[in-house]
Design brief:
By secondary structure, the protein is of the alpha+beta class. It folds into two domains: 5-95, no CATH class; 105-247, YojJ-like (1 (3-Layer(aba) Sandwich), CATH 3.40.1700. 51% of the residues lie in helices and 14% in strands. It is built from eleven helices and seven strands. It has helices at 5-28, 33-52, 56-66, 69-76, 78-86, 92-95, 105-117, 133-136, 148-154, 194-205, 234-247, and strands at 122-126, 140-145, 165-169, 172-178, 209-213, 220-224, 227-229. Strands 2-4-3-1-5-6-7 form a seven-stranded mixed beta sheet, sandwiched between helices. A hairpin with a 2-residue loop joins β3 and β4 (172-178).
Protein backbone atom coordinates (compact mmCIF):
# COMPACT_ATOMS: atom_id res chain seq x y z
CA UNK A 1 0.00 0.00 0.00
CA UNK A 2 1.33 3.42 -0.97
CA UNK A 3 2.17 5.60 2.01
CA UNK A 4 3.50 9.12 1.74
CA UNK A 5 4.67 10.33 5.12
CA UNK A 6 5.20 13.92 3.97
CA UNK A 7 1.70 14.09 2.50
CA UNK A 8 0.21 12.83 5.77
CA UNK A 9 1.93 15.52 7.84
CA UNK A 10 0.98 18.12 5.23
CA UNK A 11 -2.72 17.34 5.68
CA UNK A 12 -2.29 17.09 9.44
CA UNK A 13 -0.76 20.56 9.44
CA UNK A 14 -3.70 21.93 7.45
CA UNK A 15 -6.23 20.28 9.79
CA UNK A 16 -4.59 21.74 12.90
CA UNK A 17 -4.45 25.26 11.46
CA UNK A 18 -8.06 24.96 10.20
CA UNK A 19 -9.23 23.84 13.64
CA UNK A 20 -7.44 26.72 15.37
CA UNK A 21 -8.88 29.29 12.93
CA UNK A 22 -12.36 27.79 13.35
CA UNK A 23 -12.16 27.92 17.16
CA UNK A 24 -10.92 31.52 17.05
CA UNK A 25 -13.78 32.51 14.73
CA UNK A 26 -16.44 30.80 16.87
CA UNK A 27 -15.04 32.42 20.00
CA UNK A 28 -14.68 35.92 18.59
CA UNK A 29 -18.01 35.85 16.75
CA UNK A 30 -19.80 35.98 20.11
CA UNK A 31 -17.94 39.05 21.31
CA UNK A 32 -16.98 42.58 20.35
CA UNK A 33 -13.62 41.23 19.18
CA UNK A 34 -15.01 40.42 15.73
CA UNK A 35 -15.60 44.14 15.21
CA UNK A 36 -11.95 44.82 16.01
CA UNK A 37 -10.78 42.27 13.45
CA UNK A 38 -13.08 43.77 10.83
CA UNK A 39 -11.47 47.15 11.50
CA UNK A 40 -7.99 45.61 11.18
CA UNK A 41 -9.00 43.99 7.89
CA UNK A 42 -10.20 47.35 6.56
CA UNK A 43 -6.91 48.99 7.59
CA UNK A 44 -4.98 46.32 5.68
CA UNK A 45 -7.17 46.89 2.61
CA UNK A 46 -6.64 50.67 2.82
CA UNK A 47 -2.90 50.10 3.15
CA UNK A 48 -2.80 47.99 -0.02
CA UNK A 49 -4.95 50.49 -1.94
CA UNK A 50 -2.89 53.48 -0.77
CA UNK A 51 0.34 51.78 -1.93
CA UNK A 52 -1.16 50.94 -5.32
CA UNK A 53 -2.38 54.52 -5.79
CA UNK A 54 0.88 55.91 -4.37
CA UNK A 55 -0.86 57.83 -1.61
CA UNK A 56 2.30 58.29 0.39
CA UNK A 57 0.86 60.30 3.29
CA UNK A 58 -1.98 57.83 3.83
CA UNK A 59 0.40 54.87 3.55
CA UNK A 60 2.77 56.48 6.09
CA UNK A 61 -0.07 57.05 8.55
CA UNK A 62 -1.38 53.49 8.24
CA UNK A 63 2.12 52.03 8.60
CA UNK A 64 2.75 53.93 11.84
CA UNK A 65 -0.67 53.18 13.32
CA UNK A 66 -0.30 49.48 12.51
CA UNK A 67 2.71 49.25 14.80
CA UNK A 68 0.40 49.70 17.80
CA UNK A 69 -2.27 47.25 16.65
CA UNK A 70 -0.55 44.25 18.21
CA UNK A 71 -0.53 45.89 21.63
CA UNK A 72 -4.15 46.95 21.15
CA UNK A 73 -5.20 43.40 20.34
CA UNK A 74 -3.47 42.02 23.44
CA UNK A 75 -5.10 44.59 25.73
CA UNK A 76 -8.59 44.52 24.24
CA UNK A 77 -8.81 40.78 23.73
CA UNK A 78 -7.57 39.57 27.11
CA UNK A 79 -10.84 37.75 27.99
CA UNK A 80 -11.04 36.10 24.56
CA UNK A 81 -7.37 35.07 24.65
CA UNK A 82 -7.83 33.57 28.11
CA UNK A 83 -10.78 31.53 26.93
CA UNK A 84 -9.02 30.44 23.73
CA UNK A 85 -6.06 29.14 25.73
CA UNK A 86 -8.41 27.50 28.23
CA UNK A 87 -10.34 25.72 25.50
CA UNK A 88 -7.20 23.86 24.51
CA UNK A 89 -7.89 21.75 27.58
CA UNK A 90 -11.27 20.73 26.18
CA UNK A 91 -9.68 18.67 23.43
CA UNK A 92 -10.48 14.94 23.80
CA UNK A 93 -6.85 13.95 24.36
CA UNK A 94 -6.75 16.03 27.57
CA UNK A 95 -10.19 14.98 28.82
CA UNK A 96 -8.95 11.40 29.08
CA UNK A 97 -6.65 12.45 31.93
CA UNK A 98 -9.29 14.62 33.62
CA UNK A 99 -12.67 12.85 33.53
CA UNK A 100 -15.72 14.97 34.24
CA UNK A 101 -17.73 14.57 37.44
CA UNK A 102 -21.37 15.65 37.47
CA UNK A 103 -22.26 17.56 40.67
CA UNK A 104 -25.39 16.70 42.70
CA UNK A 105 -27.88 18.38 40.38
CA UNK A 106 -30.94 17.54 42.47
CA UNK A 107 -29.57 19.56 45.39
CA UNK A 108 -28.56 22.46 43.16
CA UNK A 109 -31.88 22.58 41.31
CA UNK A 110 -33.93 22.34 44.52
CA UNK A 111 -31.94 25.24 45.95
CA UNK A 112 -32.39 27.33 42.82
CA UNK A 113 -36.14 26.66 42.68
CA UNK A 114 -36.58 27.68 46.32
CA UNK A 115 -34.58 30.88 45.80
CA UNK A 116 -36.68 31.58 42.70
CA UNK A 117 -39.90 31.19 44.67
CA UNK A 118 -38.62 33.49 47.42
CA UNK A 119 -37.14 35.94 44.87
CA UNK A 120 -33.63 35.61 46.21
CA UNK A 121 -30.99 36.83 43.77
CA UNK A 122 -28.20 34.34 43.12
CA UNK A 123 -25.49 33.23 40.69
CA UNK A 124 -24.24 29.65 40.68
CA UNK A 125 -21.41 28.69 38.31
CA UNK A 126 -20.76 25.03 37.54
CA UNK A 127 -17.23 24.68 36.19
CA UNK A 128 -16.47 22.23 33.40
CA UNK A 129 -13.07 22.08 31.70
CA UNK A 130 -11.83 25.61 32.30
CA UNK A 131 -10.81 26.85 35.75
CA UNK A 132 -10.81 30.69 35.97
CA UNK A 133 -7.96 31.18 38.44
CA UNK A 134 -8.11 34.96 38.01
CA UNK A 135 -11.63 34.89 39.48
CA UNK A 136 -10.98 32.27 42.17
CA UNK A 137 -7.97 34.18 43.48
CA UNK A 138 -10.20 37.12 44.45
CA UNK A 139 -12.96 35.02 46.04
CA UNK A 140 -13.64 33.55 49.47
CA UNK A 141 -12.40 29.95 49.50
CA UNK A 142 -14.85 27.42 50.93
CA UNK A 143 -14.08 23.90 49.63
CA UNK A 144 -17.34 22.66 51.14
CA UNK A 145 -19.72 19.80 50.46
CA UNK A 146 -22.68 20.91 48.33
CA UNK A 147 -25.89 21.11 50.33
CA UNK A 148 -29.19 22.93 49.96
CA UNK A 149 -28.82 24.54 53.36
CA UNK A 150 -25.39 25.93 52.54
CA UNK A 151 -26.43 27.33 49.17
CA UNK A 152 -29.51 29.02 50.64
CA UNK A 153 -27.54 30.47 53.54
CA UNK A 154 -24.83 31.88 51.26
CA UNK A 155 -27.37 33.90 49.27
CA UNK A 156 -29.32 34.98 52.36
CA UNK A 157 -29.40 38.76 52.24
CA UNK A 158 -27.74 39.23 55.63
CA UNK A 159 -24.85 36.92 54.77
CA UNK A 160 -21.65 38.84 53.88
CA UNK A 161 -21.01 36.31 51.09
CA UNK A 162 -24.32 36.82 49.27
CA UNK A 163 -23.02 39.66 47.06
CA UNK A 164 -21.28 37.62 44.38
CA UNK A 165 -21.33 34.21 42.73
CA UNK A 166 -20.83 30.71 44.04
CA UNK A 167 -18.49 28.47 42.04
CA UNK A 168 -18.98 24.72 42.02
CA UNK A 169 -16.35 22.29 40.77
CA UNK A 170 -17.19 18.58 40.63
CA UNK A 171 -18.69 17.68 44.02
CA UNK A 172 -17.61 20.76 45.98
CA UNK A 173 -18.43 24.42 46.46
CA UNK A 174 -14.95 25.82 45.94
CA UNK A 175 -15.60 29.55 46.36
CA UNK A 176 -18.21 32.17 47.21
CA UNK A 177 -18.42 35.96 46.85
CA UNK A 178 -16.87 35.65 43.39
CA UNK A 179 -16.91 38.80 41.30
CA UNK A 180 -17.39 37.95 37.64
CA UNK A 181 -16.55 39.88 34.46
CA UNK A 182 -19.46 42.01 33.23
CA UNK A 183 -20.83 41.51 29.71
CA UNK A 184 -22.47 43.98 27.35
CA UNK A 185 -24.02 41.25 25.20
CA UNK A 186 -26.92 42.35 23.02
CA UNK A 187 -28.81 39.26 24.23
CA UNK A 188 -29.38 41.10 27.50
CA UNK A 189 -32.21 43.59 27.79
CA UNK A 190 -32.09 46.92 29.59
CA UNK A 191 -34.18 45.29 32.34
CA UNK A 192 -31.37 42.85 33.10
CA UNK A 193 -29.24 44.11 35.94
CA UNK A 194 -25.65 43.60 37.06
CA UNK A 195 -26.31 40.02 38.19
CA UNK A 196 -27.35 38.84 34.72
CA UNK A 197 -24.55 40.79 33.05
CA UNK A 198 -21.99 39.22 35.36
CA UNK A 199 -23.41 35.76 34.68
CA UNK A 200 -23.22 36.35 30.92
CA UNK A 201 -19.65 37.61 31.28
CA UNK A 202 -18.70 34.33 32.97
CA UNK A 203 -20.51 32.36 30.24
CA UNK A 204 -18.61 34.26 27.54
CA UNK A 205 -15.15 33.93 29.04
CA UNK A 206 -15.35 30.33 30.28
CA UNK A 207 -17.23 27.12 29.48
CA UNK A 208 -19.01 27.22 32.86
CA UNK A 209 -22.75 26.62 33.16
CA UNK A 210 -24.10 29.69 34.98
CA UNK A 211 -27.47 29.70 36.76
CA UNK A 212 -29.15 32.95 37.79
CA UNK A 213 -32.24 33.68 39.88
CA UNK A 214 -33.70 37.16 39.57
CA UNK A 215 -34.32 39.16 42.71
CA UNK A 216 -37.00 41.22 40.95
CA UNK A 217 -38.98 38.56 39.04
CA UNK A 218 -37.84 35.26 40.52
CA UNK A 219 -37.15 33.91 37.01
CA UNK A 220 -34.52 31.22 36.56
CA UNK A 221 -32.01 31.72 33.73
CA UNK A 222 -29.14 29.60 32.47
CA UNK A 223 -26.21 31.00 30.53
CA UNK A 224 -23.60 29.03 28.64
CA UNK A 225 -21.23 29.71 25.79
CA UNK A 226 -22.52 33.26 25.35
CA UNK A 227 -26.16 32.16 25.15
CA UNK A 228 -29.06 32.64 27.56
CA UNK A 229 -31.97 30.29 28.24
CA UNK A 230 -34.80 31.90 30.19
CA UNK A 231 -37.19 31.44 31.91
CA UNK A 232 -36.73 27.83 33.02
CA UNK A 233 -38.60 25.54 35.38
CA UNK A 234 -36.72 23.31 37.79
CA UNK A 235 -37.10 20.27 35.54
CA UNK A 236 -36.06 22.22 32.44
CA UNK A 237 -33.04 23.53 34.31
CA UNK A 238 -31.85 20.06 35.32
CA UNK A 239 -32.36 18.64 31.82
CA UNK A 240 -30.50 21.57 30.26
CA UNK A 241 -27.52 21.19 32.61
CA UNK A 242 -27.32 17.45 31.91
CA UNK A 243 -27.50 18.06 28.16
CA UNK A 244 -24.75 20.71 28.23
CA UNK A 245 -22.45 18.64 30.42
CA UNK A 246 -22.86 15.52 28.27
CA UNK A 247 -22.43 17.43 25.00
CA UNK A 248 -19.21 18.99 26.31
CA UNK A 249 -17.54 15.70 27.20
Amino acid sequence: MFWNKNLFFYFLDILIISYIIYKIYILLNRTRAIQLFIAIFLIVVFDIVSKRLELHATSWLIRNVSAYLVFGIIVLLQPELRRLIGEIGTMPIFKFFNPKEIPPLDIIVESVVEMSQKKVGSIICILQNMKPEYILERSVKLDAVISKELLLSIFYEENPLHDGAVIIEKQRIVSAACFLPVSDSNLLKTTHGARHRAAMGMAEETDAIVIVTSEETGKISLMHNGQMFSPLTGEELKNKILYLMKSNK
